[in-house]
C-alpha cells in the first residue's frame, strides 16, 4: 500500500491494516508533541498515565499542543517539564498523523521525540502520573522492578511504532480513529499505516 494522504517520502517495512474504507480528509494541521524518555542503560522507558483530557486513562509519552512562537522541539521540552518535571533534550524520531471522524475541523500532526539526556526525577503532576517500564522483552521482574510496556492500556496505534522509536528507526504514519477516545480494546482505530523512512 502506498503512503496515505498526508504522508510523503519513501518507506520500507510498512505495516498497515484496518477497514477497507477511505482515509479521512486531512484538515488544517494542529501540531502536538509527544516525548518518550528512554534510559538505554537501565533498559527502561518513562510513560505517564494521563489523568485528564485527550487520551485520559491511557499510558503515553509526555506532550501537548505546540504554542505560537516556539519550535516543535522547544514545545516538546516545555511539555515534558510541565507534565513530569524533568528537563530533557528531545530528539525528533517520528511523525504521526492522527485524525478522527468525530472532529474533522483539524488533524493532529503529532511530532514524536526520544529523550536520552535529561536531568531531574519524574514527578506526578495534575496531568500525568509517571512510571518506568522495561524495554527488555525478556526481562520480567528479576533484574528490574519495571513492568513491561502496557500496550493494552495505550493508544491502539502505538504498538506499531513505539518499537521503532526504541530501535531508533525514524518512522512516519497515520491512524484514523472513529472517536477521540481509545476503547478498552483499541476499538476506535479504524485504519492505520506506518512505515520506516529510507
Ligand atoms: N501515543 C499517541 N499519542 C497520541 C495519539 N493521539 C493523540 O492525540 N496523542 C497525543 C498527542 C498529544 O501528546 C496528546 C494530546 O494532547 P494534549 O494532552 O495537549 O490534549 P489535552 O486536550 O488533554 O491538553 P490540555 O490542553 O488539557 O493540556 O495525545 C495516539 O494515537 N498515540
From TrEMBL:
EC numbers for this chain: 3.6.1.56
GO molecular function: 8-oxo-7,8-dihydroguanosine triphosphate pyrophosphatase activity; dATP diphosphatase activity; metal ion binding
Pfam family, one: NUDIX
Cofactors required: Mg(2+)
An annotated GO cellular component: nucleus
Polar residues bias (residue ranges): 133-147
PROSITE patterns per record: NUDIX (PS51462), NUDIX_BOX (PS00893)
SUPFAM superfamilies, alphabetized: Nudix
Keyword Transmembrane among UniProt keywords: no
Region (Disordered) residue spans: 128-149
CDD domains listed in its UniProt record: NUDIX_MTH1_Nudt1
Subcellular location per the Swiss-Prot or TrEMBL entry: Nucleus
Biological process annotations from GO: DNA protection
Domain Nudix hydrolase: 28-157
Keywords on record: Hydrolase, Magnesium, Metal-binding, Nucleus
Catalysed reaction, written as an equation: 8-oxo-dGTP + H2O = 8-oxo-dGMP + diphosphate + H(+); 2-oxo-ATP + H2O = 2-oxo-AMP + diphosphate + H(+); N(6)-methyl-dATP + H2O = N(6)-methyl-dAMP + diphosphate + H(+); O(6)-methyl-dGTP + H2O = O(6)-methyl-dGMP + diphosphate + H(+)
Stated role: Oxidized purine nucleoside triphosphate hydrolase which is a prominent sanitizer of the oxidized nucleotide pool. Catalyzes the hydrolysis of 2-oxo-dATP (2-hydroxy-dATP) into 2-oxo-dAMP. Also has a significant hydrolase activity toward 2-oxo-ATP, 8-oxo-dGTP and 8-oxo-dATP. Through the hydrolysis of oxidized purine nucleoside triphosphates, prevents their incorporation into DNA and the subsequent transversions A:T to C:G and G:C to T:A. Also catalyzes the hydrolysis of methylated purine nucleoside triphosphate preventing their integration into DNA.
Family that this chain belongs to: Belongs to the Nudix hydrolase family.
SUBUNIT field: Monomer.
Protein name: Oxidized purine nucleoside triphosphate hydrolase
The organism of origin for this protein: Sistotremastrum niveocremeum HHB9708
Lineage of the organism: Eukaryota, Fungi, Dikarya, Basidiomycota, Agaricomycotina
